[in-house]
Design a protein that fits this description.
alpha+beta, Jelly Rolls, Phage tail protein beta-alpha-beta fold, 3 domains, three-stranded mixed β-sheet, 30% helix
Length: 322
């Protein structure tokens, strides 16, 4: 494969590959790279088509990274390149921004989602759940979740960019959870689940929380209630579903749930693309399904419903009429 060969940049790129491409770019543009490192970068790009595609994607983001990195003092560049732990990676990007390498025009929310290992304090991959304890706060992150933590005064501020998190607040009177739509402020001793997709979904297991949309009227949410809000409005609270916490145990509980909704949820826990044919999306499903083993769940659906599961090239999977 020749270098600089135009490649298809429309397909998603493995975030780990993009991260390595970024580190190579900064190394080469910093003025600290020797001939051996230059050769190593070239070999890395030639080793796989995905490497070269990641390199071209990174170079296409804009000139900010390249021109800014070229002006970095060598000592500061070496310090930044040593940042490899989870929190340090976020410091790495903050360091780039502070030195003029990263600008709002070149990097933003798109790259935050594209490279969660670099931009988020805590993140989970596809099919992964993660348990955390931060002071008096207990958390469990669901699959594909991006979460940042900041300490402010006597309390903590969390930023949930994507995904779902279960929280049990201890004694923190000033805990605040920021989402793209506004704020969730749980009382001390509260237990709740906050999920972020297009809107923010809050489920109160115990205690109380104040919901504050960015451009709407604040509203209290009490134990046993759930609701959604966007930046301008809080929906009317509803009764909490009985199987609200099943995902924490790796289960999906369906009670006369449309098959299309079940498939959409299973899709979040498996690699590749999983879609449901509209002809069977309305079939009602009841039962318990494994989120940790989504293929087994698909097999169970195929054995109990008039559907079949077709997979192409191990990546595209469709649930269609039998």
């Amino acid at each position: 494969m020749s270098l600089f060969q135009p490649l298809d940049n429309r397909r998603p790129i493995d975030p780990q590959v993009l991260e390595q491409a970024m580190l190579w770019a900064v190394t080469l543009q910093s003025g600290t790279a020797d001939h051996a490192q230059q050769a190593a970068c070239t070999a890395w790009r030639q080793a796989a088509a995905e490497h070269e595609r990641a390199w071209q994607r990174l170079m296409g983001i804009g000139q900010d990274l390249r021109s800014g990195a070229a002006n970095l003092p060598a000592r500061q560049t070496r310090q930044l390149l040593k940042a490899r732990s989870g929190t340090s990676r976020r410091t790495l990007l903050k360091g780039f921004a502070g030195l003029g390498v990263v600008t709002a025009a070149g990097w933003g929310a798109r790259e935050r989602v594209l490279l969660p290992q670099l931009f988020s304090d805590y993140h989970t991959g596809t099919g992964e759940r993660r348990t955390l304890r931060l002071g008096s706060l207990d958390l469990q992150l669901d699959t594909q979740t991006l979460l940042d933590i900041e300490h402010r005064g006597t309390g903590q501020q969390l930023m949930l960019t994507r995904g779902r998190v279960w929280l049990e607040n201890g004694t923190d009177q000033d805990l605040a959870i920021r989402t793209p739509n506004g704020w969730v402020r749980p009382a001390a001793q509260a237990r709740l689940i906050v999920a972020q997709a297009r809107d923010t979904h809050v489920q109160m297991l115990s205690g109380q929380a104040l919901l504050q949309p960015d451009r709407g009227t604040p509203q209290d949410l009490n134990a046993g209630q759930q609701t959604r809000f966007d930046a301008g409005h809080v929906a009317r609270p509803e009764e909490l579903a009985q199987a609200t916490t099943a995902w924490i145990r790796g289960q999906l509980i369906a009670e006369r749930t449309p098959l299309g909704e079940v498939i959409t949820e299973l899709d979040r826990y498996r690699r590749g693309l999983l879609r449901c044919d509209p002809a069977v999306a309305g079939l009602l499903v009841s039962g318990a399904f494994s989120l940790d083993h989504p293929e087994a769940s698909l097999d169970l659906l195929a054995r109990t419903l008039p559907v079949q599961v077709n997979t192409v090239l191990g990546y595209w999977t469709n649930v269609v009429p039998a």
